[in-house]
Design a protein that fits this description.
InterPro entries: Glyco_trans_2-like, Glycosyltransferase_2, Nucleotide-diphossugar_trans. Keywords: Glycosyltransferase, Magnesium, Transferase. Its EC number is 2.4.1.266. Its cofactor is Mn(2+); Mg(2+). By secondary structure, the chain is of the alpha/beta class. The chain has a single domain, classed as Spore Coat Polysaccharide Biosynthesis Protein SpsA, Chain A, CATH 3.90.550.10. It is built from eight helices and eight strands. Strands 3-2-1-4-6-5-7-8 form an eight-stranded mixed sheet, sandwiched between helices. Helix 1 links the parallel strand 1 and strand 2. Helix 5 runs parallel beside helix 7 and helix 5 packs parallel to helix 8. The two termini are about 30 Å apart.
């Protein structure tokens, strides 16, 4: 049913942004060139620079938090504003969440749209190539990957990727979102436990890497804290797919292949 209306399906790009005046205009312009996109919404999350003005001048609709509330709150604000702009009787827009620092490479997230548009996945997640200058050692990524695997059986390539296209129903299934930098890990677990399908898609993107200086180490420390909090909150609540009920074989997982955590129900 979704595939039949794919040509007319609309997509809203939601870009949380904090002090991104140098890159936001290029990101917005590139996002507007993605097929099916008819709305680019920037949520200025308490910026102290001219991010909101640069985004608006580049053609984005801009909403602003007067104080910094964090990425998850900006995503929720963006999704709410998109819902208000959806038209009754017309399929809700797909939501394409992008980081503000992608610049002109943001257009390369276009491959995330078709798997969701055509109904092959409820959420498509970008897999980025190695980023020049990145200084991390994979500790946070490893924590997120292991935690998702323990809860759902899925071993994602890039569990922290913030470039995600999803249906409105998928976003609601993952709400409320985990706070801080745990949003992607928590969202992935919640989507798979809810019985939805996710798919990683290679995308040729470039963003500002976290370096191995003091600020980079502090950033990764905050990431680790927030991912651990998102994971432990779900572990205490028993949010997981029971091992006997898990479906797709982990050895068959790879970018480009949809993954559904639950095995198909067997008739009696």
């Amino acid at each position: 049913m979704r595939q039949a209306g794919a040509r007319s399906q609309r997509v809203a790009v939601v870009i949380p942004a904090k002090d991104e005046v140098d890159r936001i205009a290029a990101t917005v312009r590139a996002a507007r060139a993605i097929p099916h996109v008819d709305l680019v919404l920037v949520v200025d999350d308490g910026s102290e620079d001219d991010t909101q003005h640069a985004a608006r001048a580049a053609g984005a609709v801009v909403v602003r938090h007067s104080v910094n509330r964090g990425k998850a709150s900006a995503m929720e604000t963006g999704a709410s504003v998109v819902a208000m702009r959806d038209v009754e009787g017309v399929a809700p827009r797909l939501l394409l969440f992008l980081d503000a620092d992608l610049g002109e490479t943001a257009v390369a997230t276009a491959p995330l749209v078709p798997p969701v548009l055509e109904g092959r996945a409820d959420c498509a997640i970008a897999v980025l190539p190695p980023q020049p200058g990145a200084g991390g050692r994979g500790i946070v990524t490893g924590l997120a990957r292991r935690s998702i695997a323990r809860a759902t059986g899925w071993n994602p390539t890039q569990p922290l990727s913030g470039q995600r296209c999803m249906t409105r129903a998928a976003f609601e299934a993952a709400s409320p979102l985990s706070r801080g930098w745990g949003v992607e890990t928590g969202m992935t677990i919640d989507l798979l436990v809810a019985g939805l399908t996710v798919q990683e898609v290679p995308c040729d993107l470039r963003h500002r890497p976290s370096r191995n200086d003091l600020s980079g180490q502090l950033h990764r420390g905050a990431q680790y804290r927030d991912v651990a909090l998102a994971v432990n909150t779900r572990r205490v609540r028993g949010v997981k797919v029971p091992s006997p009920r898990r479906g797709d074989n982990p050895t068959n997982q790879r970018p480009g292949r949809p993954y559904r955590a639950w095995a198909p129900a067997t008739g009696s």
